[in-house]
Amino acid sequence: MAENQLIRVAVDAMGGDNAPSAPIKGAIDALNENPRISLLFMGDEQQIQEELKTLQYDSTRVSVVHCTQKIEMAEPPAAAIQKKKDSSIVKGMMAVRKGEADAFVSAGSTGAVLVGGQVLVGRVKGVERPPLAALIPTEKGVSLLIDCGANVDPRPTWLLQFAEMGSIYLEHALGIKNPTVGILNIGAEEEKGNALVKETFPLLKACKEINFIGSVEARDIPGGAADVIVTDAFSGNVLMKMYEGTASTIYHIAKKGLMSSIPGMLGGLLAKGTLKKVLKDFDASKYGGAPLLGLKGLVVKAHGSSKPVEFRIAVNQCETFYRENVNGKIRERMESEALKIRELKKKQAPSAAAAAEKTE
Q1: Which of 51, 82, 115, 116 is most exposed by smallest CB count within 10 Å?
Q2: Cβ-proximal residues to 69 (8 Å cutoff; 6+ apart), any chain
Q3: How many CA atoms lie within 13 A of 39 on its CB side?
Q4: How far is the C-alpha of 304 from the C-alpha of 42, rounded, in Å?
Q5: What is the pTM of this model?
Q6: Does the pLDDT value for residue 347 go beyond 90?
């Protein structure tokens, strides 16, 4: 793509607990600091325009697509996608599908975003299921938690693909060369784990395209035990939400302890800046949203409680993701693997037929 070409990011202005102010304010903040993007706000035009009146921005890079419907959190996702075609989520997805937008960001219904991503945007050929990939802070920087909310009961081959797609994402979007891959487990030993982990482990171990280092326990993740943490969406979502609550809990406990005595208060005043910085570095929300990897277009799911800063980061993520052609690199890998599998099946077919003849 041309260096001066704008990345068109569609933003669901109606999705999330703090809509429409948070998604609009955050996206405009991204627009003001990043001259390489333009915005398409999807939602109720009157509400969007009211919010935009309070902000300063380059109006030539902002447009509004009016939507008369909104998908609520409690609605059945598949039915909502089918019935509410004039909703901000459906219209945002369709903009990506038609090439009218290069990416879509939403803090709305996770189920609707997941269903819409697969049905409306579509999976890359060869991808069995798209996972949500969230960046989480560690002592060494960041790790990618994949899956963190899309596939609660995955198959071993899905987890293998998650590892491959996650590795591509980290290498090209974050510049982490040959990222290490670990599978979330209850122990470091290869023989430990549930049926899913035991079946997935040899697949990851045999995959030459990834840098697999074995099992990783949850307690080692904050220390940066692996760059890519592969797991099912149930375990991944629990782990991510535990992360989200830890920083604020530690802050409140520390604050309470420091305020309990005069020496503590004096020490707290001296340590306040350092403590805030450390806790900020371990705040998972500073990494924006989670892309749904393996789709034909870029879809990013932000937390439902996202504030403007999360939307700002998520919109900027889209620009990096798109310019580095992460989707294209995933497509090349997955299509190549699908071709290998078809060729392998063709080779196996004659031998299977010969074996059947001998049996007869």
Answers
A1: 82
A2: 84, 85, 86, 87, 88
A3: 31
A4: 17
A5: 0.86
A6: no
Q: Which residue carries 């599908």 as its tokens?
A: 97
Structure-token pair, residue 314 = 């998520």
* Mean pLDDT, rounded, of the chain: 88
Query: In angstroms, rounded to a whole number, what is the distance separating the alpha carbons of residues 103 and 11?
Result: 8
Largest distance between two CA atoms of the chain: 90
- Cβ count near 12 (within 10 Å): 33
Encode pLDDT of 79-123 as tens digits. Answer: 999 999 999 999 999 999 999 999 999 999 999 999 999 999 999
Residue ranges of alpha helices (H) inside the chain are: 21-33, 45-52, 77-83, 88-97, 110-116, 156-173, 195-206, 233-258, 262-281, 308-323, 326-359
Q: How far apart are CA 346 and CA 50, in angstroms?
A: 61
pLDDT score for 160: 95
Task: Please name the residues in contact with 338: beta carbons below 8 A apart, sequence gap of 6 or more.
Answer: 125, 126
β-strands 290-291, 298-301 pairing: antiparallel
C-alpha span between 217 and 238 (Å, rounded)? 14
Q: Assign 243 to helix, strand or coil.
A: helix
pLDDT band of residue 180 (cuts 50, 70, 90) is: very high
For residue 133, give the nearest of 305, 326, 337 by alpha carbon: 326
